[in-house]
Design brief:
This protein is α/β, with parallel strands linked by helices. The protein is 27% helix and 26% strand. It folds into two domains: 161 residues, Alpha-Beta Complex (Quinone Oxidoreductase, Chain A, domain 1), CATH 3.90.180; 141 residues, Rossmann fold. The strands form three sheets. Strands 3, 5, 6, 7, 8, 15 and 16 form a seven-stranded mixed sheet that branches. Helix 3 packs across helix 4, helix 3 crosses helix 8 and helix 4 packs parallel to helix 5. The protein starts with a strand and ends with a strand.
Amino acid sequence: MRAVRMTSPGVLEQVEVPTPTAGSGEVLLAVGAVGACHSDLHVLDAPPGLFPTPITLGHEIAGTVETVGAGVTGWSAGDRAAVYGIIGCGTCRACLRGRENQCRRVPPGGIGLSRDGGLAEYVAVPASRLLHVGDLDLIQAAPLTDAGLTPYHAIELARPALRPGTTCVVIGIGGLGHLAVQILVATTAVHIIAVDTSVAALDLATRMGAHHVVRADPEAVDRIREIVGPAPDGADVVIDCVGVDPTLTTARSVVATGGQLLLVGLGGGTLPVRPVADEPPTMPLETNVVIPFWGTRAELQELIALGRLGLVTADVQTFPLERAPEAYDLLRRGEIHGRAVIVP
């Protein structure tokens, strides 16, 4: 079969490999769609030895069951499924509570990260990683497994602060941010302010339901402050889907005293913390800073339900499998709107 693999650190190419088989407890999935994620770029750019090579990338996967392995129940050939990509240890306190994204015994990894993923015609996955998607388009289902699940999980963590009439700032209306806006619209009654450098992204945020859009430039903080009011008031929740120094500066400059800042993006920025009484604080007092990671299987099931109801729709650019390396190049250059989805 055809697969797009990291054949050595930093090298992504299409190759021919044997079609996998479904082992005990596994399902062989015919890949219908797989999202291209910034996390894959981190894998490609990682130092040698941090991730196995060669490896087939792709952790945002949806497809159709081809065959089932021994001991698998609840799945039959022809079933359509989304893949929950995290594989935890299954025995630590976090995993036992269904929070495999907080696994305390194995480093963050899973399908497409520590074992072969979905940038291929077929992928073998543990049956426990699958969720039924019903009639949801597989091209829509695939990005929900990370680009949708990550902001959904962040919003769940902030749910107590997202009361009707409160304000949430979403920074970065890309693959994650445009879905974050929709999830907020579908599940809360908050006032949404979308921030991005791109006019096209802000237009998308408006179509998705944002109440205000702000261009990310040197005056952005002042314009957001005109909406949320002066300190110590501000945004009740800020979701930074970029995570570089300028966006984190904006986030901490507009969050309210007692507010919540969720650092979702993996841009490599630094959030300074200086609780010194005789100097200007780096963040308001009582600010709760959280670094969400992916999400839980239960949250993905809820998000799929929103997708099936048409309340959350990914804005996608599709590419055939042979153009996957090109899609990642465009992603690296910031030239993808919404989410790039590879269709083998």
